[in-house]
Specification:
This protein has a 7-stranded mixed β-sheet. The chain has a two-stranded antiparallel sheet with strand order 7-8. Helix 9 (229-250) packs antiparallel against helix 10 (264-277) and helix 9 packs antiparallel against helix 13. By secondary structure, it is α/β, with parallel strands linked by helices. It has helices spanning 7-10, 12-27, 42-50, 89-106, 130-141, 162-172, 202-212, 218-224, 229-250, 264-277, 284-295, 303-311, 327-349, 353-357, 361-376; strands spanning 30-35, 61-62, 67-71, 77-82, 116-122, 146-151, 155-156, 159-160, 185-186, 255-256, 324-325. The chain has 15 helices and 11 strands. The chain has 2 domains: 7-25 and 228-376, no CATH class; 36-224, Rossmann fold, CATH 3.40.50.300. It is elongated. The two termini are 19 Å apart. 45% of the residues are buried.
C-alpha cells in the first residue's frame, strides 16, 4: 500500500519554518545573574563568553533600581546585571531586590528562573569585604549557586599574579558557600598584548557554570556561549543520531523514490535543531534559505527529488532495487546529511556577523556537498535485505 505524503513533506518550506520555531522553543532559556561593581569587567566577560556586549546595548530592562535585565540576541540566555555594589542601605536594597526576584520567579517556568550567579571582582584593585560576603550568602540562601570570579587576572608563563592568588585565598578562607567546591575562579577575558598577559580562565568558568546550572538549561547555555565549539558539536550529534533513528523507522516500510520527500521534514527538523544549538544569529527566513541551499540545487521544494537522484547514489546501497529506500539507507542518508550540516555550522560559527550576513547561499551548498560526499564515501556498503 502506497504511503501518504505528509502535509509537511508536500510543503517543505513551511516544514522548515515550523521546524525552526519548534527547535528554538525546545532550546530553553538560561538566566545568569552577573553581580559586581561598575568597572570590574562584567560586560567584557559576558562578551568574551557569549559574544554579547551589554555595555553597547544601552539601558537594559529595569527590574529594580539596582538590577537590569539584558537578553542575548539568540534569546537563549538572559543576564541580570547590577549597577554596582554599595554598602549600607543600597546594599540592603540590592539583596532584597535579588531575594524578591528569585522567590517570585521560582514559581514560574524553569526558563524564567535565575540559574546561576557570577560574583565578579577586579583582582588588582578590589578587596573582598563583609558586604560582598553578605551578598554571596544571601544569593545562596535563596537557592542561586554563586561562582566568585576574579576578573582581569594577569597570567604569564602559566603563573597567576600573586595579588590575585592572595585575594582568592582570603575569600576562600571565609568558608562561604561558593559554587562549585568552595573555590574562586580566575579570568582574563581579553588578552593584554601590551603587557604580555594571555587570555585564560573562560573555559574553566564555563565548565563550572555547567556543573551548577540545572540540566534543563544546558542546551541554552551551549547555544549562547561562543568559546567551546566541541560542546555544540556533541549536543548537535545527539540531535543528528535521533533524526537518523527516526528516518530509519520511517524507512522500515521501504519509501518509494517518488516519496523521498517524506524524509525532508525529518532532515529539516534536524537541521533546525543543529542550527539553534550552534546559536547562529540567523533569522527563520535565513535558515530556510540556508537549508534549501544545502538540500538542493533547485530549492527546498525539489529536495526530495534531489535527495533521491543525487545524494542517495553517494551512499553505499543507495541505488536500491525496486526504486525504494530501505531503513538502513534512510538512516545512513540522514546521519550523513546531519554530520555535513554540523560541518557547515562549524564554519558559520567561526564567521564574524558581517561576513555571515553577506554569505552567498551557494557557498553553503558547496560546503555541505563537499562534507556530505566525504562522509558518504566512508560508509560501509548496505547489506540489503
Amino acid at each position: 500500500m502506497r504511503r501518504e505524503t505528509s502535509k509537511a513533506g508536500s510543503d517543505p518550506v513551511q516544514a522548515a519554518q515550523d521546524a525552526y520555531e519548534k527547535a528554538a522553543e525546545q532550546l530553553g532559556h538560561a538566566n545568569v545573574a552577573v553581580v559586581g561593581s561598575s568597572g570590574v569587567g562584567k560586560s567584557t566577560l559576558i562578551n568574551a563568553m557569549f559574544g554579547f556586549d551589554i555595555a553597547r546595548t544601552g539601558v537594559g530592562q529595569r527590574v529594580t533600581q539596582e538590577i537590569a535585565y539584558y537578553e542575548h540576541p539568540t534569546g537563549a540566555v538572559g543576564f541580570f546585571d547590577t549597577r554596582g555594589i554599595e554598602v549600607g542601605e543600597a546594599k540592603a536594597q540590592l539583596i532584597e531586590g535579588f531575594r524578591s526576584l528569585v522567590v517570585e520567579r521560582r514559581s514560574r517556568d524553569q526558563s524564567e528562573q535565575i540559574h546561576v550567579a557570577w560574583y565578579c571582582l577586579r583582582a588588582a584593585s578590589t578587596r573582598f569585604v563583609d558586604a560582598d560576603a553578605e551578598i554571596v550568602r544571601a544569593l545562596h540562601e535563596v537557592g542561586v549557586p554563586v561562582i566568585v570570579v576574579l576578573t582581569q587576572v594577569a597570567r604569564r608563563d602559566g603563573r597567576l599574579h600573586p595579588v590575585a592568588l592572595e585575594l582568592a585565598r582570603s575569600i576562600e578562607s571565609r568558608g562561604l558557600p561558593l559554587a562549585p567546591e568552595g573555590r574562586v575562579f580566575f579570568v582574563m577575558a581579553v588578552p593584554d598584548e601590551f603587557e604580555g598577559h594571555e587570555r585564560h580562565g573562560l573555559e574553566v568558568l564555563l565548565d563550572a557554570t555547567f556543573r551548577v546550572a540545572p540540566e534543563g538549561v544546558h542546551r541554552a547555555l551551549i547555544a549562547g556561549q561562543i568559546i567551546d565549539l566541541k560542546r555544540k558539536e556533541k549536543a548537535s550529534r545527539r540531535i543528528v543520531q535521533a533524526a537518523s533513528a527516526t528516518a530509519a523507522t520511517a524507512g522500515a516500510v521501504p519509501i518509494p523514490f517518488s516519496d523521498a520527500a517524506a524524509l525532508v521534514p525529518i532532515q529539516v527538523g534536524m537541521f533546525a535543531g543543529v542550527t539553534v544549538t550552534y546559536g547562529l544569529p540567523v533569522s527563520k527566513g535565513t535558515f530556510v534559505t540556508l537549508a534549501a541551499a544545502a538540500l538542493s540545487y533547485g530549492g527546498l521544494t525539489n529536495a526530495g527529488r534531489y535527495l533521491a537522484t543525487n545524494l542517495l547514489k553517494l551512499v553505499p546501497g543507495g541505488n536500491v532495487a525496486g526504486g525504494a529506500i530501505r531503513a538502513s539507507v534512510a538512516g545512513a542518508l540522514t546521519l550523513t546529511a546531519g554530520e555535513a550540516w554540523i560541518a557547515v555550522c562549524n564554519q558559520l560559527a567561526r564567521m564574524d556577523p558581517e561576513r555571515l550576513a553577506s554569505l552567498d547561499t551557494s557557498e553553503v551548498r558547496d560546503v555541505f556537498m563537499q562534507a556530505f560526499e566525504r562522509r558518504a564515501r566512508r560508509l560501509p556498503p548496505d547489506p540489503g535485505e
